[in-house]
Fold this protein.
Amino acid sequence: MTQPDLLTPAQLAQSLQLLRQQAPLVHCMTNDVVQTFTANVLLALQASPAMVIDAEEAAQFVSFADALLINVGTLTRDRRDAMLAAVQSAAKVGTPWTLDPVAVGALSLRTEFCQQLLSLHPAAIRGNASEILALDNQAAGGRGVDSVHQTDAALSAAQQLAQDYHTLVAVTGEVDYVTDGTRTLAIPGGSPLMTRVVGTGCAHSAVVAAFSSLPGDRLQHVAAACRVMSLAGEQAARAVQGPGSFVAAFLDNLWTLEVTV
Ligand SMILES: Nc1ncnc2c1ncn2[C@@H]1O[C@H](COP(=O)(O)OP(=O)(O)O)[C@@H](O)[C@H]1O
Ligand SMILES: Cc1ncsc1CCOP(=O)(O)O
Ligand SMILES: [Mg+2]
């Protein structure tokens, strides 16, 4: 495996400009905790969120959407069936979909479902280090929804998953890595404060879904999704006292983000 490269400012600027121009419609099937925050993050980037969750409606709606997000954070059997219907429909119509395997590992329902989803061709997978290790059967998972591993420790698992399932894997934490199994980009930055408000990881996956719908180099676009999150996060953390005001500053920074080349 080759050493990680860095995303250039020119690549970031190109991907961000394309995202704002295309304003993708992102079909989100996500967990109960993060619905509003996820929608607000997408809106701040000029994308359009739509949370359509009934099995029949989801299978229909995915053909109107530019991207689909599957997040198993508050999975139930009914939701699993609806997500499966949406993914199968996405495969038929060619809508790229992204998996967020929240807390995969210790719990059977979500672990078996995530393993099933892997063979249904996700365009991208975004998880924290413990989730990526668990998905590759190399660890039992994290502490609930939080990681107990560093991303360096999960990089080879991310590369292996990407190769095995012909997908992109973004493993996020202090340093984010995005890999297709051959090329890997490292994205430093962000702030520990990002982990002190709920939903940043889940929203990150929604942003990965949005960027993965863009034409061109998907690895570049997904790395740009990570850098957009880390830039907005680090700028917000510098300006605020704690988690409450962080959320507002983070959304404002996504809205105003400019990249100088
Ligand atoms: N120590 C850190 N320093 C900077 N950014 C971080 C740090 N930990 C997490 N992040 C960022 O916070 C967001 C949430 O990521 P993470 O904690 O990995 O996911 P999850 O919330 O799914 O566990 C990501 O954008 C990630 O890059
Ligand atoms: C707390 C919680 N419990 C089930 S899903 C969820 C949200 C997790 O959000 P994130 O992974 O973005 O921290
Ligand atoms: Mg998460």
Remarks:
- Residues 5-256 form a domain with the UDP-N-acetylmuramoyl-L-alanine:D-glutamate ligase fold (CATH 3.40.1190.20).
